[in-house]
Amino acid sequence: MNGQEMQMIVTACCALLFAGATAWLAIRERRPAPMSATTVRDADMWAAAAVSLLTIVTVTLWPIILPDLPHNDRITYATDFLKLRTGSYDGLILGDHDLLWRGIMETCAALFSSPISLFAMVAVINVGTWTAVVWRLTPLNRAAMMVAVVCGFMYLHYAEAAIRQGLGEAMAVLAITLLTDRRAAVRMSALLPAVFAVGVHLSSLLTLGAGCIALLMRRTDLLAGAWLVLAIVMALIGNALDDVIVAVAPTSRLALYITHDWGAEVSRWFRLDFAVYSALPVVAGVLYRYLWGYRSKVYTTLLNTYIIANMGWLLLNTVPYTDRIAHLSWTLIPVVLFMPLLQPDDSGEWKVPRRWMIYGLGGIYQVVLRLI
After folding, report:
1. Which residues of 163-173 are buried (b: 16+ CB within 10 A; e: fewer)?
2. Which of 58, 93, 320, 352 is a Cys-bridge partner for 266, taking CB atoms 3.0 to 4.6 Å apart?
3. In what helix (H) or strand (E) does residue 180 lie, and over which residues does it extend?
């Protein structure tokens, strides 16, 4: 079985999980549950745990079940792991400048003989972090929310290639959700995942910074308008800001992405496809908030975080491999698209009509993106 066939199987599994979650939501929305509330809650909890466990196994074994993957960061991490294990470490590993990641690599290399142990540890931390996020965001429909996260279009990309960035982003999202809590002790606890996020991938600072701004900036309509204006301006001027970005780049790595000769195959023009993909959560968030009146402090913060972080991508959209910058906002897309369908707002009321139907359409959208 080659990689393409396995990808199709995974896509089919995601479609089945979305279909099952949609059917469960439809039954619960259209008629009273035939089981007690406690039974329903327990069934939902165990289903969410099963999805989490299945994801951990899949993410860990991804390089084994897809042996013909092209070169990517996972192969580099495995090579670095073996260098550390055999003592042939030459002083530089991918992500060496991020000290926490360096510590994770060295710990795994000291304790285990196979790089699979590294991927297993990353999978457990990543999925565990997202499970904690889901437990906080949607206590009434955790299984459906977990399906939306792990079956999202880009989730397995973090398992296949950008695992360090994916780990940092999961921790960044958890930190932002903790910052929205009313209890001071819980807000203080956000420091731990925030430090972890930056420690494994410095780029997580963009998401965390966007989250801090979103805690102060509550006007989603103004942010959505600013996003639209910026998208139009960047589409018109293209890469005209490259010299300015190089001059003010916070890291030399970002400047290198712009100045390095990547060859003709790397696009340096405005990515309209990425912009369209990024626009859907903005439109959905505006509809949830202003058409249906969904008022949730946590959701508003996460939605505004997405918009602000994505505006950061718009400014850098002509940088080579700009998808790596876009991921810093795209990681929030499952939350932005699905949370209002799975959790009542702060008043305790369900605001969005036909929730199960919209959830199903969102699932179809995510599956179709996998097939394109």
Report:
1. bbbbbbbbbbb
2. 320
3. none
For residues 367 and 155, give the distance between their C-alpha atoms in angstroms, rounded to a whole number.
12
The whole-angstrom separation of Cα 18 and Cα 13 is 9
Rounded distance between C-alpha atoms, residue 247 and residue 207, angstroms: 22
The answer to whether the beta carbons of residues 324 and 271 sit under 8 Å apart is: no
Longest dimension (CA), the chain: 64
Q: 48 burial class (0-12, 13-18, 19+ CB within 10 angstroms)?
A: buried
Tokens for 48, please give them.
């969410």
pLDDT values of the chain reduced to their tens digit, one per residue, 372 residues: 556 777 788 888 899 999 999 998 898 877 655 556 667 777 888 888 899 888 888 877 765 665 555 556 777 788 888 888 887 766 565 555 678 888 888 888 888 888 888 888 888 899 999 999 999 999 889 999 999 999 888 787 776 667 888 899 999 999 999 999 999 999 999 999 999 999 998 889 999 999 999 999 989 999 999 999 999 999 888 766 666 666 666 555 666 666 655 555 556 678 888 899 999 999 999 999 999 999 999 999 999 999 999 999 998 887 777 888 888 999 999 999 999 999 999 999 999 998 999 999 999 988 888 776
